[in-house]
């Protein structure tokens, strides 16, 4: 499975692509941080990020995209910028039929380090170790993008089982509802 991880941010947007196979074997293909200048108007910044994301989608052709879910922060403008970037990135994936999954920061930290409250240094150290990298990915946005891709790769089997169980339960609800309706 090829996973593109995205740590959305208006000033720094982390991008990564990994290949995962059975078990926990993962190979990093690329990682980059897209930077936009604060003096550029918002539409221009979003377009710059979108252009790079679309180039990556066309180059790497991921099976799925893992994006960090926006969470409440004290700085509303940061949250808005992060959400806008996440939307632009999800749209680019949807245009190409690439499945999109959102993961919270605590899900990512728990998957990669075993601790949902881990700090950035711990996440970076574990990403470096998991991928067998010679050097730590920098800045933190690069490590976070890799952690998102790893998280999704490892959680994908469970996500698929949950979707299958929900579909089966939905079918059972319909059959039971039809029997109840017929019995009336």
TrEMBL record:
Binding positions for Mg(2+) 1 per the UniProt entry: 7, 141
Catalytic residues of the enzyme: 7, 68, 141
Subcellular compartments: Cytoplasm
Recorded GO CC terms: cytoplasm; Holliday junction resolvase complex
Database matches in PROSITE patterns: RUVC
Binding site for Mg(2+) 2: 68
General function of this protein: The RuvA-RuvB-RuvC complex processes Holliday junction (HJ) DNA during genetic recombination and DNA repair. Endonuclease that resolves HJ intermediates. Cleaves cruciform DNA by making single-stranded nicks across the HJ at symmetrical positions within the homologous arms, yielding a 5'-phosphate and a 3'-hydroxyl group; requires a central core of homology in the junction. The consensus cleavage sequence is 5'-(A/T)TT(C/G)-3'. Cleavage occurs on the 3'-side of the TT dinucleotide at the point of strand exchange.
This protein's name: Crossover junction endodeoxyribonuclease RuvC
């Amino acid at each position: 499975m090829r996973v593109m991880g995205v740590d959305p941010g208006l000033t720094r947007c982390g991008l990564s692509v990994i290949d995962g196979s059975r078990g926990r074997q993962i190979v990093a293909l690329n990682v980059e941080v897209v930077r936009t200048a604060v003096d550029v108007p918002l539409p221009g910044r979003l377009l710059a990020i979108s252009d790079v994301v679309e180039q990556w989608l066309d180059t790497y052709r991921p099976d799925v995209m893992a994006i960090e879910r926006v969470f409440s922060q004290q700085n509303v403008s940061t949250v808005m910028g992060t959400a806008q970037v996440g939307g632009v990135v999800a749209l680019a994936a949807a245009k190409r039929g690439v499945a999109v999954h959102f993961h919270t920061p605590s899900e990512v930290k728990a998957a990669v380090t075993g601790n949902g409250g881990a700090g950035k240094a711990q996440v970076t150290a574990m990403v470096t170790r998991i991928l067998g990298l010679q050097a730590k990915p920098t800045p933190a946005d690069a490590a976070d993008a890799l952690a998102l891709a790893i998280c999704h790769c490892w959680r994908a089997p469970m996500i698929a089982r949950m979707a299958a169980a929900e579909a089966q339960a939905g079918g059972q609800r319909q059959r039971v509802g039809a029997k109840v309706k017929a019995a009336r």
